[in-house]
Specification:
The protein is of the alpha+beta class. The chain folds into 3 domains: 9-47, no CATH class; 60-131, Translation Initiation Factor IF3, CATH 3.30.110.10; 134-323, Phosphate transport system protein phou homolog 2, domain 2 (Methane Monooxygenase Hydroxylase, Chain G, domain 1), CATH 1.20.58. It is built from 11 helices and 8 strands. The radius of gyration is 26 Å and the shape is flat.
Length: 338
């Protein structure tokens, strides 16, 4: 980024500044051209080159097919999607094997909005068909939160009912969390690189950063719930104190409160989440002491309980981290002289 300083000049009743000549030349602008100007929320302005087809320009990338490095190829597809490419082509010099083509297409189907529009023996082409201007970061984050909340409730119910077949269902829902996570990361990265898009989405630079971090915490919470579901078989054979049930319900309330605090920028709700976490820790510690005093010789039950509380704590800390993203309220009153 190059920083330019310009002095304001007054001509008639208008205040004018000159634009950098390098910027004028690189964008092929001349006298008489119209350039769009936007006033941002932080009271800065953005000036865009006058290009009629700027909004319709499609970002394309071609990824060469290599049978020996399929993992790398799939990662490149994910990377191209997250970087905002609209058209992703897989191009091969020889025929793409059936198994490899199937793997590539499965990877593409995990990405929201990316549809395969053309395919032959040597090429696979996918296009992102959603309009970024119509997407909403808050709605995507809330959708992630809703799926994660459902996963957590169903795991707790499986623990109570001693149901062991929940793991596969939970893993499938975590895949949908990942899909929404990738979509949100793509959107906020695109907004970061395109201030015009950021303005349309009403996202400041700090909002973009916060949404990226919040989405990561929700994705991590989903992974921790999958870990919790994986230990259902051991948990079903264990007996838990009422404090564990209370603590698990508290984590559910923490999620609801933290996400609401984040999207509404409510510092009071954010502080309440931290207090709820402190109460959660007290309940967990009490349950641990009670469980070990009641059945000190049952190592398997104790280990299962410790694993459960460890996973619950990882989930709870995700909600604390989301709540911590809410901007602190700074006192603006002047300090009095001592």
């Amino acid at each position: 980024m190059t920083l330019y300083a310009r002095r304001l000049q007054k001509i008639g009743s208008s205040i004018l500044i000159s634009l950098p000549s390098e910027w004028i030349k690189s964008n092929k602008l001349t006298k008489g051209n119209t350039v769009p100007i936007e006033v941002n929320r932080d009271n800065t302005i953005s000036i865009f080159p006058s290009q009629e087809d700027a909004d319709d320009k499609i970002k394309e990338v071609t990824i060469p097919y290599s049978p020996a490095s399929m993992d790398t190829l799939v990662n490149q597809v994910y990377g191209a999607y997250l970087l905002g490419y609209d058209l992703i082509r897989i191009k091969a010099g020889l025929q793409i094997s059936f198994d490899h083509a199937d793997r590539i297409k499965k990877a593409m189907r995990k990405l929201v909005g990316l549809e395969i529009i053309d395919e032959d023996s040597q090429n696979i082409t996918a296009q992102f068909l959603l309009d970024a201007n119509t997407l909403d970061a808050e709605k995507i984050l809330r959708r992630m939160s809703s799926i994660v909340a459902g996963m957590y409730r169903d795991v707790l119910e499986a623990v109570r009912s001693k149901e062991n077949s929940i793991r596969r269902v939970i893993s499938g829902r975590d895949d949908e969390v990942d899909r929404q996570y990738f979509l949100l990361v793509r959107l906020i990265r695109s907004a970061m690189m395109d201030q015009k898009l950021a303005g349309k989405l009403n996202l400041s630079n700090i909002d973009i950063l916060d949404y990226r971090i919040a989405a990561n915490h929700l994705e991590s919470a989903g992974d921790s719930i999958v870990d919790l579901a994986s230990s259902i078989q051991d948990l079903a054979r264990s007996h838990f104190a009422k404090e564990i049930i209370e603590a698990s319900s508290l984590v559910e309330k923490m999620q609801e409160r933290s996400v609401a605090a984040f999207v509404n920028k409510n510092r009071s709700d954010s502080n309440n989440v931290v207090k709820m976490y402190e109460e959660f820790i007290k309940l967990v510690n009490s349950a641990k002491e009670l469980a070990m005093s009641r059945d000190p010789g049952n190592a398997q039950s104790t280990i299962a309980m410790l694993n459960m509380t460890y996973s619950m704590d990882k989930i709870a800390r995700c909600w604390v981290d989301v709540a911590d993203l809410v901007k602190p309220v700074h006192l603006t009153a002047p300090l009095r002289n001592a």
